[in-house]
């Protein structure tokens, strides 16, 4: 998962988002991806000349994503009865759904995007999945297909290609035969697909023909979604271990708590109504004592030049200097690029969020956390400090869910009180 981006050349330009606000941010990586990194040092001399041409189309062909085709009259029913997200009725279904397949214990097997059929073919559904997970997902689908009437097929890169457009990108010109849907995850752009002969090659040619800047790369997309706090794939969303709420699927519209039965429903509904989700996936930033993160910094800032060790997947996170019971795990590192990544974090320990009346135990000034792991034949212990951030969209969603849970609890108490009074009468 880790990528050595520090060795890549750094090119500066004005951020096309900040340009309209009269601000300047330093950005890097080939054609300057659309996310700000850090403020440049002020200087009255040798001021760099910045380009004022805002990009019309920021795109990337997602070579790490694969399409699975469902073609037939039973495709919609099959998907609706297997995943926790609502697929039926079609009139109320979003064009693109971020969801997951669960096992019988309510744990995530594989995350996926479900693309609604086009108007031309109402029976043709597409499932977008990670390429490395496609074979395992096909086995899972075939096991449950039974006598359902639809054709199931995994499409090769020559048959189908997936692409992504950054937020505020313009509509692609001359992109017939492609489907483009809004990514349902907050702060994300649009994702689409092209199905046809030599799909990947033809899609790249079509993008090259548009009036756009150089195409971005797979890692640019990875960094973009990590900065917004969105996990993908079996590395970040551990198969058969991760819970859908901990992976924030409940805030993407990936779970319907009112629909009928689906695989893994019992534990998912029980957690929603009776439990408190104390851990969630958050964006994090690595740092050292020589390069501290300011207390007033509210989001991770990506720096491709940061020379920091990359923790392995599932590395433990704990409070710095804590021992014994107080030194128990506060989270797990899930993966990252450079100095940023994603981690499964205990909210009341690593952030200022209060989930219950007890409140958060987090001290923003004094509390520090570190990722620790053993490396090499000598099992040398390595560690690097880490700070978790709660994106505004996630903070708002969590606070909304706490309020809704409180209202449900009050409603149950009022109902119980009314029933007790009726029994006394």
From TrEMBL:
GO terms for cellular component: mitochondrial matrix. Keywords: Mitochondrion, Transit peptide. The keyword Mitochondrion applies. Transmembrane segments: none annotated. Coiled coil: none annotated. The keyword Hydrolase does not apply. Belongs to the GcvT family. CAF17/IBA57 subfamily. This is Iron-sulfur cluster assembly factor IBA57 homolog, mitochondrial. It comes from Knufia fluminis.
């Amino acid at each position: 998962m880790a990528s050595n981006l520090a060795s890549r050349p750094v090119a500066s330009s004005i951020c096309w988002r900040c340009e309209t606000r009269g601000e300047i941010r330093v950005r890097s990586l080939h054609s300057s991806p659309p996310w700000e990194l850090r403020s440049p040092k002020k200087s009255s001399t040798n001021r760099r000349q910045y380009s004022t041409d805002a990009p019309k189309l920021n795109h990337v062909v997602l070579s790490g994503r694969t399409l699975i085709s469902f073609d037939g009259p039973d495709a919609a029913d099959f998907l609706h009865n297997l995943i926790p997200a609502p697929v039926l009725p079609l009139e109320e279904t979003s064009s693109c759904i971020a969801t997951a397949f669960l096992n019988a214990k309510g744990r995530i097997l594989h995350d996926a995007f479900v693309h609604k059929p086009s108007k031309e073919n109402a029976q043709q559904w597409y499932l977008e999945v990670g390429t490395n997970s496609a074979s395992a997902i096909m086995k899972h689908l075939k096991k449950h297909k039974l006598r359902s009437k639809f054709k199931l097929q995994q499409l090769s890169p020559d048959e189908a290609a997936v692409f992504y457009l950054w937020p505020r990108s313009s509509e692609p010109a001359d992109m017939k035969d492609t489907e483009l849907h809004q990514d349902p995850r907050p702060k994300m752009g649009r994702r689409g697909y092209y199905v046809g002969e030599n799909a990947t090659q033809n899609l790249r040619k079509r993008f090259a023909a548009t009036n756009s800047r150089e195409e971005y790369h797979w890692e640019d997309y990875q960094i973009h979604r990590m900065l917004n706090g969105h996990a993908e794939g079996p590395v970040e969303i551990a198969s058969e271990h991760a819970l859908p709420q901990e992976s924030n699927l409940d805030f993407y519209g990936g779970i319907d708590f009112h629909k009928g039965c689906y695989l893994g429903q019992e534990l998912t509904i029980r957690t929603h109504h009776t439990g408190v989700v104390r851990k969630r996936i958050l964006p994090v930033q690595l740092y050292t004592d020589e390069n501290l993160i300011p207390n007033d910094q509210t989001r991770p800032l990506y720096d491709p030049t940061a020379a920091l060790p990359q923790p392995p997947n599932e590395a433990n996170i704990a409070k710095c200097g804590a021992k014994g019971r107080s030194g128990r795990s506060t989270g797990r590192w899930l993966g990252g690029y450079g100095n940023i990544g994603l981690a499964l974090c205990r909210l009341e320990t690593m952030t200022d969020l209060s989930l219950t009346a007890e409140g958060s135990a987090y001290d923003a000034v004094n509390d520090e956390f570190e990722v620790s792991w053993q490396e090499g034949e000598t099992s040398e212990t390595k560690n690097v400090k880490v700070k978790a951030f709660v994106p505004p969209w996630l903070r708002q969603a969590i606070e909304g869910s706490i309020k809704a849970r409180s209202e449900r609890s009050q409603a149950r108490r009022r109902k119980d009180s009314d029933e007790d009074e009726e029994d006394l009468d």
